[in-house]
Design brief:
By secondary structure, this protein is α+β, with helices and mostly antiparallel strands. It has a single domain (about 5-115), classed as Roll (Pnp Oxidase, Chain A), CATH 2.30.110. The protein has helices at about 5-15, 55-60, 90-100, and strands at about 20-25, 30-35, 40, 45-50, 65-70, 75-85, 110-120, 130.
Length: about 130
Amino acid sequence: MVKIPKEVSELLGQKETVKILVTADSKGQPHGIVCGSIGIIGEDTLSVGEIFMKRSSKNMNENKKVAILAANGPKAYEVQATVLGREDSGANLDGLNKALSAANLKANAVWKFKAEAVYDEGAGPNCGKKIA
């Protein structure tokens, strides 16, 4: 477990940031999707709403390792994480669905992840450097 750095939290919180969730099936075949609902719910915990995520959900049930990439302009960070579980009810899902209602979207569940490592993947001299 690592604490998610402030600059990563801030980038994930910006509406313009592109957020990508990468999963892999049991054979290691990667699958990436854009996920605007990726957020941070603790100093070392991330979440994502399960919206149209059939293949990703199947992968996360088979393989608990994921990568989350957040990019906005020249800034980009990768968070390598482990699936903690899926919640199909409760305060996290209710709060997410309240926020998603403005976009006429609804999540079926919330997936939670424990951050294991964070890398700077931005366009600059620190690209590829582990920062947490």
